[in-house]
């Protein structure tokens, strides 16, 4: 899924969602809620636009696609918001791509991963992200935009 908004005064934020997040709304609603990925894209783009940013929202179930999207952000985006889903806990490649593009990145998780299985408590991405937001539901994406609004020119 891809969506975008235009004319960003402060540049565009790449909003990247990883595997299974396309199923938001029907996937384990007791954990992830009833909002869909389209709802996430809409609220994130609205928050970004209100702060003078554009938002390009991309979702993929494939690790290499996420790496490619991160590479594409170099020179086209001013920041990254990433929920890498399960790849958070496994992917050195996504970690390295975030580090390589040298853009401010915010890691978001809808659920509170620290209240869940042990394997979800470690993130390969947190060390290369400026901020980590977990357990705020889909409002975590808005909080990520708010952080970027406060910290970027
Ligand atoms: O797919 C996901 C979603 C998630 O990133 C979250 O947003 O809470 C948490 C991950 O552990 C899980 O694999």
Automatic annotation (TrEMBL):
GO biological processes: amino acid biosynthetic process; aromatic amino acid family biosynthetic process; chorismate biosynthetic process; quinate catabolic process
Positions annotated to bind substrate: 83, 89, 96, 110-111, 120
Molecular function via GO: 3-dehydroquinate dehydratase activity
EC number, as in UniProt: 4.2.1.10
Marked site (Transition state stabilizer) residue numbers: 27
Active-site residues from the entry: 32 (proton acceptor), 109 (proton donor)
Amino-acid biosynthesis keyword on record: yes
Class in the EC hierarchy, top level: lyase
Substrates-to-products reaction catalysed: 3-dehydroquinate = 3-dehydroshikimate + H2O
InterPro entries: DHquinase_II, DHquinase_II_CS, DHquinase_II_sf
Pfam families to which the protein is assigned, alphabetical: DHquinase_II
Keywords from the named record: Amino-acid biosynthesis, Aromatic amino acid biosynthesis, Lyase
Superkingdom of the organism of origin: Bacteria
Assembly and binders: Homododecamer.
Role description: Catalyzes a trans-dehydration via an enolate intermediate.
Record family assignment: Belongs to the type-II 3-dehydroquinase family.
Protein name stated in the entry: 3-dehydroquinate dehydratase
Originating species: Arthrobacter alpinus
Lineage: Bacteria, Bacillati, Actinomycetota, Actinomycetes, Micrococcales
């Amino acid at each position: 899924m891809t969506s975008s908004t235009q004319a960003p005064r402060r540049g565009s934020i790449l909003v990247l969602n990883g595997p299974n997040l396309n199923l938001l709304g029907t996937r384990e609603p007791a954990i992830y809620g009833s909002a869909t990925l389209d709802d996430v894209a809409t609220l994130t783009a609205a928050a970004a636009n209100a702060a003078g940013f554009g938002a390009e929202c991309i979702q993929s179930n494939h690790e290499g696609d996420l790496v490619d999207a991160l590479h594409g952000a170099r020179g086209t985006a001013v920041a990254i918001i990433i929920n890498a889903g399960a790849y958070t806990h496994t992917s050195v490649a996504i970690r390295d791509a975030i580090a390589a593009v040298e853009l401010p990145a915010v890691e978001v998780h809808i659920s509170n991963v620290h209240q869940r299985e042990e394997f979800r408590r470690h993130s390969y991405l947190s060390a290369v992200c400026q901020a980590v937001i977990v357990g705020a539901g889909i409002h975590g994406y808005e909080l990520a935009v708010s952080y970027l609004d406060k910290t970027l020119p």
